[in-house]
Amino acid sequence: MPIATVNPATGETVKTFDALSEDAVRDRLALAASAFATYRTTAFAHRAELLRRAADLLEEDQDAVARTITTEMGKPLAAAGAEVAKCVKTLRWYAQHAERLLADERPAPDDVADAGAANAFVRYRPMGPVLAVMPWNFPLWQVVRFAAPALMAGNVGLLKHASNVPQTALYLEELFRRAGFPAGVFQTLLVGSGAIEGILRDPRVVAATLTGSEPAGRSVASIAGDEIKKTVLELGGSDPYVVLPSADVRRAAQVAVSARTQNAGQSCIAAKRFIVHDAVYDEFTDAFVAGMRALRVGDPMDADTDVGPLSSESGRSDLEELVDDALRHGATALCGGGRPADRTAGWFYEPTVLAHISADMRIHQEEAFGPVASLYRVADLDEAVNLANDTSFGLSSNAWTRDEGEQERLIRDLAAGGVFFNGMTASHPALPFGGVKRSGYGRELAGHGIREFCNATTVWYGPPNG
Fold first, then answer.
1. Cα(389)–Cα(246) distance, rounded to whole angstroms?
2. Is pLDDT of 10 > 80?
3. Phi and psi of 100, rounded to 5°?
4. Which residues on adjacent β-strands are paired with residue 168?
5. What is the mean pLDDT of residues 11-35?
6. How many angstroms separate the CA atoms of 164 and 211, rounded?
7. Is residue 71's pLDDT more than 90?
8. Which of 33, 252, 336, 366 could be joined to 352 by an S-S link, Cβ 3.0–4.6 Å?
9. Given CA atoms 422, 426, 431, 436 in this order, what sign does their dihedral have?
């Protein structure tokens, strides 16, 4: 895939970029290793000062960065601006909290004595250069949620971004440079996917994090495993959205529209499978379908647009194949089901609701990366839980119920990295984020995320006269 900005609203190639040569990549890896040797010894206060400066600069650049994001991957301009604001917030959050999150952990005095020590504790130390392989769907946020904790921990970052968002990738390197981070602490590597193996096998790279598809995660994990290097993976999702009789059904349907169509449905944590109790199925369906039909599909630079184009022509083709397969096998399109008639250029797709889904349809198991919802009717909570878990993915989940007993049951039994009640899944710097099953492993954000790429070092002092 060429490294290029291609406007998904028009199909126009805006700008192309040359990939780094092998020699240039080696030079950058050497710079990363050299930077880590000194940056790892800097004080938390100094790192926090640099990160706050990055946040201030990003806030000043918000409008321009948002336009770049929209041009490169097609999300509505308002959503791109919100993504930038979230990154600013996260940079400041880690600048404020990182030192506390990585403070020495001290066992109880009795345990220290039982270990035969005069003193003992755990100290979190940085690991070194970490390779981040990042996707296009949240081109700024995905990187910042790695970079903010990694840099505050004393690591250095090497970004291999998706090939269709090169301008966003280069901006990120420039941002950290302008903020005052030393040369080599954060670098963007404009390379194709074929270069990842060589970078990851380089002994100067100590770990990797990837957000992306299951095949990409499997490839990176296998290479890292062969090299015995740590990885964190956030892969696909087919999140359930369970609606039970005690729910505020109208509100559940309203939020469901946003939960399915955020980022034109191109989000791993977007709700994709809507599992609705028979008692409220008709009410929910009527409101949900009406809400999906009311969405405005159009130019993502237009303030009135709700849903922009998909990011690529191949992405739309993949989505069309899933929907067509479902329709051939008996599914019903309650709305949408194809390309908008008034959009002849660009890679647009109508907000779609499919009912009568069965197990022989690909969409029952595969992730639909676009504004297509799968709707299911269930008889009771047991059937809802079983259907929610009938997937190889386990990223997050949503459930609408005001019954505390049902809530406890869902917390216990839903196989997912998160359970969100009476609202839609969202990420926040104070809460860990990640999945189970084929949605990956490890966690980003919060204290869990910053410690993923740290060496938890046991420190033990013997008795003075021992």
1. 21
2. yes
3. -65, -40
4. none
5. 98
6. 15
7. yes
8. 336
9. positive
Does the pLDDT value for residue 465 go beyond 80? no
Backbone angles phi, psi at 120, to 5 degrees: -155, 145
180 vs 463: CA distance, rounded Å: 44
Active site residue 268: yes
CATH number, domain 4-234+430-461, options 3.40.50.2300, 3.40.605.10, 1.10.760.10, 3.40.50.300: 3.40.605.10
pTM above 0.85, yes or no: yes
pLDDT of residue 208: 98
227 among known catalytic residues: no
Of 76, 150, 454, 463, residue with least CA distance to 301: 76
Determine the average pLDDT of the residues in 196-204: 98
> Kindly report the CA angle at 351 between 385 and 438, in degrees rounded to 5?
40
Write out the DSSP string of 235-298.
----EEEEE-TTS-HHHHHHHHHHHHHGGGG--TTSEEEEEEETTTHHHHHHHHHHHHHTPPB-
CA–CA distance, 362 with 395 (Å, rounded to integer): 19
Which pLDDT value is given to residue 341? 93
* CA angle at 419 for the pair 415 and 423, rounded to the nearest 5°: 145
Q: Give 399-421 pLDDT, tens digit per residue.
A: 999 999 999 999 999 999 999 99
Structure tokens, 163: 């090939």
Q: Apex CA 149: angle with CA 427 and CA 454, to 5°?
A: 120
pLDDT of the residue at 156? 98
* Tokens 């690909």 sit on residue: 362
8-state DSSP, 453: T
d(CA 417, CA 434): 6
CA dist 18 → 3, 113, 189, 262, 395 (Å): 7, 60, 11, 32, 35
The listed CATH number (3.40.309.10, 3.40.50.10440, 1.10.238.10, 3.10.20.30) that belongs to domain 239-421: 3.40.309.10
Cα–Cα distance between 18 and 192 in angstroms, integer? 10
What pLDDT shows up at residue 250? 98
Percentage of the chain beyond pLDDT 90 is: 99
Q: Which of 72, 83, 234, 406 is catalytic?
A: 234
Enumerate the CATH 3.40.605.10 domain ranges in the chain, comma separated: 4-234+430-461
The answer on pLDDT for 275 being more than 80 is yes
Q: Which amino acid is at 16?
A: T
Q: How confident is the model at residue 1 (pLDDT cuts 50, 70, 90)?
A: confident
| Long-range contacts from 33-36, C-beta under 8 angstroms, 24+ separation | 33/128, 33/129, 33/204, 34/184, 35/156, 35/182, 35/183, 35/184, 35/185, 36/126, 36/128, 36/129, 36/155, 36/156, 36/184, 36/185
